[in-house]
Amino acid sequence: MGLWYLFRMTHKPVLLSAIKPTGDLHIGNYFGAMRQQVELTKEGKYKPFIFVADYHALNSVQNAEEMRRRTRELVTAYLAAGLNPEEVVLFRQSDVPAHTELCWIFDSITTMPYLMRAHAFKDAEARSKEISVGTFNYPMLMAADILLYDAAVVPVGQDQKQHVEFARDTAEKFNRIFNQDVFKLPDAYIMPEVAVVPGTDGQKMSKSYGNVIPLFGSSEELKRRVMSIVTDSSGSIPQNVYAIHTLVRSDAELKPIYEEHKGSYKELKELLYADLERYLGPMRAKYEELATSPDIVDEVLEAGKQEARTVSEAKMDQVRAAIGVR
Ligand code: ADP
Ligand code: TRP
User: Fold this and answer.
1) Domain residues for 62?
2) Same-domain check for residues 140 and 32
3) Rounded to whole angstroms, how far apart are CA atoms 160 and 120?
4) Percentage of the chain surpassing pLDDT 90?
5) Based on the number of CB atoms within 10 Å of its own CB, is 128 exposed (0-12), middle (13-18) or buried (19 or more)?
6) pLDDT per residue over 120-172, tens digit each?
7) Which of 47, 192, 213, 281 is the most exposed, fewest CB within 10 Å of its CB?
8) H-type helices in the chain, by residue range?
C-alpha cells in the first residue's frame, strides 16, 4: 500500500496542453481554455506540461517581432492566470527540437488521404486552395507534441478533439510498424462547461470577428466593450449580456438580478462590467506587474526548456532506436 502510493505519486499521469501565440487574448480564450487548463494543473493529480505552440502559429504569424511579443504575452498571461511554474513545466515549443524531429518521422508513416480527413484542413481548403504544407500536416506536429511526453490527458476544446484522435492513431500505427510499445495512447479530455463564449455581437467571440472583450485591456476598455454588447429588443433579458455574465456568476445568482432589472439593459451591462472587473482586475494587475519584470518570463522558459528537453530526448532515444537511425 505504502509502496503503491509512492509509485502513484512519482508516476502521475501526464497532462499536456498548449495554446498558439496568434492574437491578443480575449475572455473567450480565458474562459474557454486557459482557466480550465490552469485549474487542472492545480488538482495535484497530474504531472502538467503546458506550452506555447509557436511552431503551430508560424502558419499565420510570419513576423519575428510579433512572434516574440505574443509568445512572451502568452507566458505572462498563464502566470497571471495562476499557473505555478514550480509545478508546471511551462515552455516554448521551438525550444525543444524533438517536436519537429518527431513530426518528420510521423509524416513518413502517415498518408495524405488520412490527413485530408482533418476538419481543420477541410475548413481551410474550403476558404482557399493555397494552403501551406504546414497547415496540412499540422496534426502530425500536434501528435509529436502529445506523444513525446507520454501524455495521458490532453485538455482541449471540442474543435481539437479530432487532432488528439489523430495522435492516438499515429501512436498505434508507429507501435505497430516498429513492433514496440514506444508511445502511450493519449485521451482527449474535452474541457467541461466550455460553452462557446459569445462575443459582443452574439457570434462566437473570436479575434477574426472583431467582437472580442480583451482579457488584459484597461478597465475603461473593458467598460467600453461591455457597453457595446449588442442587445436584442425582443425579450426582457438581454441574451448576449446574460451569457457573458454566466462566466462569472451562477444562474441562481443571476436570475433575481435580471428579474429586478428587467428591460434595463444599461444597468445590467453596468453590473456585468462591475463583475468582470472584480474578476479580471486582480489578474490584470498581476499581468502588468509581471510585464515590468521580463526576467521572470525568461527564467520560467529556461527552466521549462531544460525539463521538456530532458523528457523528450529520452523518448527520442527510444524512437531513434526503434526506427534504426543514429
Ligand atoms: P480565436 O477564435 O480568437 O482565433 P483561438 O482559435 O486562437 O481563438 O483559440 C485559442 C483557444 O481559446 C482555443 O483553445 C479555443 O478553443 C479557445 N477559444 C477561443 N475562442 C473561444 C470562445 N469564443 N469560446 C470558448 N473558447 C474559445
Ligand atoms: N492545436 C491547438 C489549438 O489550435 C494548440 C496545440 C498545439 C495543442 N499542440 C497541442 C493543444 C498539443 C493540445 C496539445 O488550439
Assistant:
1) 2-195+293-323
2) yes
3) 9
4) 85
5) exposed
6) 999 999 999 899 999 999 999 999 999 999 999 999 887 899 999 999 999 99
7) 192
8) 2-10, 27-29, 35-42, 54-57, 64-80, 98-109, 112-115, 119-127, 133-136, 138-147, 161-177, 219-227, 239-245, 251-260, 265-291, 294-323
**Residue 173 CA: distances (Å) to CA of 161, 189, 211, 295:** 19, 22, 42, 42
Grid coordinates standing for 178? 516498429
As a whole number, the mean pLDDT across the chain is 93
- Residue 99: predicted pLDDT: 98
Residues 254 and 305 in one domain: no
| Ligand with an atom nearest the CA of residue 119 | 2
- How many separate domains does the chain show? 2
pLDDT of residue 232: 74
Tell me the CATH number at 188. 3.40.50.620
**Quick one: 79 and 216 in the same domain?**
no
Residues 283 and 251 in one domain: yes
pTM over 0.85: yes
Interval between CA 244 and ligand 2 midpoint (Å): 25
Same domain, 224 and 254: yes
Mutate to test the pocket of ligand 2, among 145, 148, 166 (most ligand atoms within 8 A of CB): 145
The percentage of residues in the chain with a pLDDT greater than 70, rounded to a whole number, is 95
pLDDT digits (tens, 9 = 90+) for 64-116: 999 999 999 999 999 999 999 999 999 999 999 999 999 999 999 999 999 99
Assign 5 a pLDDT band (cuts: 50, 70, 90). low
Residues 24 and 113 placed together within one structural domain of the fold = yes
Choice from 56, 119, 206, 207 to test ligand 1 binding pocket (greatest atom count within 8 A of CB): 206
Is 312's C-beta closer than 6 angstroms to any atom of ligand 2? no
